[in-house]
């Protein structure tokens, strides 16, 4: 039988529209993958040392007190500090933040603490603390606004051994620049912004925006089972009679 004798199946307008939309979605998925590859390539670019280092603001971090550093336990606390130290960066050496109070702007010093270990990192020992180092931490029950529940945190009890110092933040190296790579990323981002493709791309690839709005919708659908329920019915459910 000749292929020209086969019956011709005409596509309906609805099917044509569906195929066009499906092909467009495939293009968006390929575009998202291409952008991910470009970002990964940019991330893997090596660091290049600068000919002339320059200062970019200030950094504040904890250091071990001089008397503790010179003591017999200096090396022990120095190793502990490497695991729980925190660093803040600021354009001003004073490290003050502006806050509006009673219609006026006031400046207060930014607070900085040693790292607080959450329960997840403590149980899995992601910081690789030794048994001797774990003795220096105490658990503390605090209220988590994000989780809306009480959580356990582990705080260092001997914070007095460490002091804050402010040092110049010197930049010694920078990321290698690839002009062609930057141009390709910019072209894709411009197209996404110009044609407003991000919402559809996020929905197709399971992006954070889509997941967030899906979570919000699920939260709205929550129903209180105890609302408008008679008291005697609740008593029957609780006591069984």
Describe this structure in words.
This protein has 241 residues and is an alpha+beta fold. It has a domain at 57-172. The strands form 3 sheets. A 3-stranded antiparallel β-sheet has the order 2-1-8. A 3-stranded antiparallel β-sheet has the order 5-7-6. It has a two-stranded antiparallel ribbon with strand order 3-4. Strand 3 (96-101) and strand 4 (104-109) form a beta hairpin. Helix 1 runs antiparallel to helix 6 and helix 1 (13-43) packs across helix 7 (198-205). It is built from 9 helices and 8 strands. The relative contact order is 0.14.
Sheet with the most strands: spatial strand order: 2-1-8
Could you name the ranges where pLDDT drops below 50 across 5 or more consecutive residues? 208-213
Q: How much helicity do the residues have? A: 40-55%
Nearest-angstrom radius of gyration?
29 Å
Strand content: 25-35%
Task: Return the string of H and E elements.
Answer: HEHHEEEEHHEEEHHHH
Give the structural class.
alpha+beta
What's the β-strand tally?
Answer: 8
Average pLDDT metric = 84
**Count of individual helical segments:** 9
**First-residue to last-residue Cα separation:** 78 Å
Q: Strand count, sense and closure of the main sheet?
A: 3 strands, antiparallel
* CA-based shape: elongated
Oligomer: single chain
């Amino acid at each position: 039988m000749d292929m020209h004798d086969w019956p011709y199946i005409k596509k309906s307008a609805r099917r044509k529209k569906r195929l066009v939309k499906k092909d467009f979605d495939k293009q968006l998925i390929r575009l998202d993958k291409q952008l991910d590859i470009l970002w990964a390539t940019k991330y893997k670019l090596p660091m290049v040392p600068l000919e002339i280092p320059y200062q970019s603001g200030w950094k504040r971090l904890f250091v071990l007190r001089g008397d503790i550093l010179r003591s017999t336990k200096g090396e022990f606390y120095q190793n502990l500090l490497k695991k729980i130290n925190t660093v803040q960066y600021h354009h001003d050496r004073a490290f003050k933040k502006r806050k509006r109070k009673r219609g006026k702007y006031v400046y207060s010093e930014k607070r900085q603490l040693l790292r607080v270990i959450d329960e997840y990192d403590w149980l899995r020992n992601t910081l690789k603390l030794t048994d001797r180092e774990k003795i220096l931490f105490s658990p503390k029950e605090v209220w988590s606004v994000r989780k809306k529940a009480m959580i356990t945190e582990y705080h260092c009890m001997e914070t007095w051994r460490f002091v804050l110092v402010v040092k110049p933040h010197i930049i010694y190296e920078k990321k290698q620049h690839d002009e062609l790579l930057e141009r390709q990323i910019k072209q894709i981002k411009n197209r996404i912004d110009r044609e407003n493709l991000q919402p559809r791309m996020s929905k197709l690839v399971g992006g954070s925006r889509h997941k967030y709005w899906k979570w919000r919708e699920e939260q709205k659908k929550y129903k209180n089972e105890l609302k408008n329920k008679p008291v005697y019915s609740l008593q029957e459910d609780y006591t069984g009679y």
